[in-house]
TrEMBL record:
It is found in: Membrane. One of its GO terms (molecular function) is phosphotransferase activity, for other substituted phosphate groups. InterPro entries: Bact_transf, EPS_sugar_tfrase, Sugar_tfrase_EpsB_2. It is a multi-pass membrane protein. The keyword Phosphoprotein does not apply. This is TIGR03013 family PEP-CTERM/XrtA system glycosyltransferase. Residues 261-444 form the Bacterial sugar transferase domain. It comes from the Bacteria. The keyword Transmembrane applies. Belongs to the bacterial sugar transferase family. GO terms for cellular component: membrane. NCBIfam families: EPS_sugtrans, EpsB_2.
Amino acid sequence: MFVEVLVLVGAAYAGAAVRFLGLGDGMPGIDHFFTSAIAFAAAIIFSMSAMGMYQLNFAEGLRNPFFNKLMPSFAIGFMILTLLFYVAPEIQIGRGMLLVVFLIAAAGILVARTIFFKTSELRFLESRILFLGSGALAKECSELARRDTNYHKYDIAGFIAMPQEEALVPEDELVKLREGRSLASLATGKNIKEIVVSVENRRSGFPIQELLDCKLQGIKVTDAATFFERETCQIRVDSLPPSWLVFGGGFDQGFIRTFMKRAFDLICSGIILTVTFPIMLLTVLLIYLEDRAPVFYQQERVGKEGYTFRVLKFRSMRSDAEQGGQPQWAAQNDPRVTTVGNFIRKTRIDELPQILNVFKGEMSFVGPRPERPYFVEQLIEVVPYYNVRHSIKPGITGWAQVRYGYGSSAEDALQKLQYDLYYVKNNSLFLDILILIDTLKVVLFRSGR
């Protein structure tokens, strides 16, 4: 992204130079044009992010994402720039120049991404890792390390079997320590950069002193929970020791973070309420015409620290959706959803009235999805650490919503919880902005939840 910001700013200046080549007027003032170049770069980077061009899949290569996503990104960027030039005409770029800038930018991004993909295949960029353990946990971690879609590239040196652990990895990948040889000397000899501790039972024969020696020699030592978090952007809960949550980094909710998040909530909610108010009025009319009143519905949800509140949404289901009084999981293609409701759910218009919950301080704009007390009581019994997600305010959109599909079972709730815990642990203003960009992509392509 940083490289492509430079490419886009450079494209703006190159386009201006080409446009004014041979003309007596010369280029616009350098200070004035720098603002225009930054505005152009920001609009295109935002559009490319919304189109998912920074969620790279190495398996699909370069050609399809480039032509299928870059052109629509430029179209969205052009619309953003048109609105921006209308609001602030002093930073406007002429149409003729803008066309040249877009052509140079497309060529520049193609070259930058080609270099990136080619260099990512070079072997010296791979990180050589060794797994301590050979059981089910080690096997799962190694499968994560071998995925084609990884941002990190790994060269797996092998697995060290531990006592009283059944080996579930190929025998030819097992590494044996010779008599009198230390783990540190083995790691140094094999040029190991990282040791992943993937042992489920650490009570007997666990080489804590040898791992410390490895760390003191500059070899990175990572536990399986941290490795899983890094590679999947989730926090694994089915084999997570409580001490990891207590002593691990993150989970900070200090005054500065709380203040910044509240300011971010109010600013985002105010802007979106202003922009979408006509859409909300049209939605009210369409719901009433199809299924009459009530247009809104309120439902009890569990918020921060377990306190309940009533969430406000546009009604997307029939008024008799839960006739028997028994709460039901919402599902994809739910037959209870009305025609208008189906559209507003896929485009997330049904969530817009929750902005009022944000203004009241009951919700944040970004956070874990609030669930109904009936389901929370069930999930606490079967899903470990489920209550941890209630340590912060729930959100209109969130990490789990943009990374995972519809949740209609306890297993889905577990997967979404692992994303929620990642957000609770790592939440920041930057992550909130990334989630908002991903939410825009979800709305544009009707994917996610």
